[in-house]
Amino acid sequence: MDRLPVLVIGSGISGLTTALTLAEAGQPVVIAAKTPWSESNSGLAQGGVAAALSPGDHPRLHAEDTLRVTRGLADPTRVDILTSQAASAVQPFIQSRVLALGPDGAPKFSQEAGHQRARIVHARDGLTGRALMGHLIRKAQSYSSIHWLDGKVVGLAAENHQAEGAYYRSPAGDLDYLAATAVVLASGGMAGLYATSSNPDSTSGDGLILAYLAGATLADLEFVQFHPTVLATKGPGRRLLLTEALRGLGAHLLNAAGERILKGHPDQELAPRDVVAQAVFSQQPVYLSMQHLPSDDVYRRFSGLVQQLSECGWDLARDHIPVTAGAHFSMGGVVTDSVGRTDVARLFAVGEVAMVGVHGANRLASNSLLEGLVYGKRAAQAILTDHARLTPRKPLARPAMTVRPEYWTVPSRLPSLLDQHLGVIRDQDGLQRLEQALQGMQACHATLLIQMMVSSAMARQESRGAHMRRDYPEASAQFAGHFYHQQDHGRIFRPISQPSAISPLPIP
């Protein structure tokens, strides 16, 4: 390459959006991903993308829904950016017919939990993430300026609080170094650390710890969203997710006696995700039923999921399907400004690994793919702007680094302990037990991350969104703020009325 590339770590929707925006401007890009795109959360996403496109809807209403569901911890300005730019973000997928259209050529909309309007656009078979990702991957592969790195990033090089590149380990086990003009973390969250999860176990928080060790700030780590309807199978590993769009169509959640567990809630099965997850967790066994709906509609609308469930021995339209709550999404992450900059110069974060401020304590359904599209593009545009005004650098000689391979290996006991003590409902006793168990484990990226999660979960003595404390069941105005984690300062709490715990770089 004639000039240093931008390194994008991760090949989900946020990483590909960033890479494509850069490549379209002529910037060389290297994409590094430790697993195939089909195993990313983006590729597995079933629901859809939220956008206020239907008659009678408006980005302001989408923003209101987001702020209500996120329990007071989302940033209104960042949410306005998300919802106001949603239409332009999804339009290319509508024009290319990746998303489902009706007979009139207009998008088909569905409703999901927490939304006051039907504003979710989705793929024809319901497997929206796979459709969007396939489209973006084909487009990325057509650019000669996008290169693919075969290896796992195991460390970031940062001098004087500035990202210089990354160390990676090849499939053969060799350690190498890549210098970069900027590094973009798009590596996903950490919900795959749990035993019961909709995520692959590769979603283990690597990117958060890469950023933290390089000097970046993390926040909101106690807020892990649990999806209320993952298939209740035995044993650890990724569980098949039963999309929220099923309840949007009218699916019921039933207890063992066949009674609807949310019939008494004003929004019933379309209550916010934290409410539904806590109900499903508390009333096990729980079953999802669509028996009362026309089977032809179910088979047509969700043909992809119908096939997946059939392979597991279930008929989506006719059976009571056992479901449970599983770890699904990380609301917290690497703290960024409104264009993805972290407090380490030339280091950006986008998508689930980032805490840009749009998810708060409880993510609104179908805002995650949208976040990747909107904020991935914004990060790329900021990199291009920064690159134009930054002084060219001479690449550093490859720094020496010793990486223990086992540092990135998750202890076998950890997933079940997370389910038990840092799951849908927590309390002080369980958190202390988990903290004690961590002290007896081999130190690794996962134990470091969980220690910070436990620290915040114990300090947040309230229940808010996805953080439900059995011993503190009510929300408290005292905790209307964020817990930040920095290497130099430990855990810091800042009320939302006070300045951030970091000083982000100025937005151009």
List keywords for this structure.
five-stranded parallel beta sheet, globular, 508 residues, FAD/NAD(P)-binding domain, disordered C terminus, five-stranded mixed beta sheet, alpha/beta, Flavocytochrome C3, Chain A, domain 1
Task: Give a description of the structure.
The protein is an alpha/beta fold and 508 residues long. Among the domains are: 6-190 and 329-389, FAD/NAD(P)-binding domain (3-Layer(bba) Sandwich); 229-327, Succinate dehydrogenase/fumarate reductase flavoprotein, catalytic domain (Flavocytochrome C3, Chain A, domain 1, Alpha-Beta Complex), CATH 3.90.700. Helix content is 31%, strand content 19%. It has helices spanning 13-24, 41-44, 59-69, 76-84, 86-95, 128-141, 206-213, 245-249, 273-282, 295-301, 303-311, 368-389, 414-421, 428-439, 445-459; strands at residues 6-9, 29-32, 49-50, 109-110, 120-121, 146-149, 152-159, 162-169, 175-179, 182-185, 196-197, 218-219, 224-231, 237-238, 252-254, 286-289, 320-330, 333-335, 347-349, 354-355, 425-426, 468-469, 481-486, 490-495. The strands form seven sheets. It has a five-stranded parallel beta sheet with strand order 6-2-1-10-19, with helices on one face. A five-stranded mixed beta sheet has the order 20-18-12-23-24, with helices on one face. It has a four-stranded antiparallel beta sheet with strand order 13-17-16-15. Helix 3 (59-69) crosses helix 4 (76-84) and helix 14 (428-439) runs antiparallel to helix 15. The protein is globular and about 65 Å long. 54% of the residues are buried.
